[in-house]
Amino acid sequence: VREAARSFEAGRADLQAKPAVDLPNLSLSVGDPTLFGNLPVDERVVAAVQEQLLSQKSNGYPPSTGYPAACEAIAKRHSLPSHQLSKSDVIITSGCSGALAIAIPTLADPGDNVLIPRPGFSLYEVICSNSGIEARFYRLDGDRQWEADLADLERQIDGRTRAIIVNNPSNPCGSNYSAQHLAEIAAVAARHRLPIIADEIYGGIVFAPAKFVPLAAVAPDLPIVSVGGLAKQFLCPGWRLGWIVLYDRHGRLARVRSGMVSMSQVILGANSLVQAALPQIFATVPSAYFEKLSATLAEQGRYFSDAISKIRGFRAIEPQGAMYLLIRIDTAAFRDVPNDVSFCQMLLAEQNVSVLPGKVFGAPNHFRVVVCAPRSVMEAVIARIAAFATRHAAA
Ligand SMILES: Cc1ncc(COP(=O)(O)O)c(C=O)c1O
Predict the structure, then answer these.
(1) Does the beta carbon of 97 lie inside 6 Å of ligand 1?
(2) Which of 97, 138, 134 has the alpha carbon at shortest distance from 118?
(3) Which of 110, 206, 264, 382 has the smallest set of CB atoms within 10 Å of its CB?
């Protein structure tokens, strides 16, 4: 647990090395879109929360599963033509982390295993280890836009497997799966009668022409536990509002559902003001907002991807969604950079640039950048990485 938690912490804080240069720190390491001030919370979202605050009506404990009106709003928003949801299909949680912390240990007991994407978000492993559940990794293929290696996925399944986690769009890969690939993953799950935990927190952030497809849309008969939240799409991670949505039209998750309700009682529910504001947030923020946010991140992601790939020793995989880019490091292109951890430490020490080593996500010899920073910051980071690459280039 300690090891997994340590790598997770590395995602929250910058690496420990002390910069030896007198340059201002430039950090593309933390997945918090608020850090640069260039992506403010939409004024309609602020107004909805402000209204709740001023009303003095939402200061008490909400039900542990969430205010019914907020659950209803989430159910409506996530209903699909093939699957109409009701408020009882929704549990509101303290962030999407809270949703995962309920969903994973409800589906699996100590000694069971859950399949986790690699590279993937480190919290999955932390939650598993913390509950005595084996985190078993399946491979995503960097040469195929980080699609799941289906044979590897299926190979990992045994009699103690209780769920497959799919994170789409992905942190840290910046990938977005096609409907066809999602259906292929769902087919593996269906063959083994396994539910999928679909982490869709980046669902609204997809770079055109790619389109986001909810997993439940391609697998209407498969039990799917979709988790999400406001943090990324609405640019307010500190508000700690997430949810679990159960797509289970054949009632196969009946016991899981009541287990999740019991688990939600452990912390007496999520932030009252923000969940009370949810119906208004969803009603007033138009789809144009998501198109604009996605276009901004796409523009920044593509700039970084193109610019870094022009520097010898680096190759980015074209981003398709979320807020990240995973960049491959060709260590042979450098004299004295043996791996991704050394690269990140040396870059911090020499150029005062913070990025995260792929090791944190199970992607050795890669590093991750967050593409939320304004263009001027990204350009400065590229210039410093270029200077680093020249200084350490192999003969
Ligand atoms: C893939 C993924 N899932 C879940 C979370 C947690 O989200 P929250 O801040 O709502 O707890 C994150 C946060 O970075 C994430 O990247």
Answers:
(1) yes
(2) 138
(3) 110
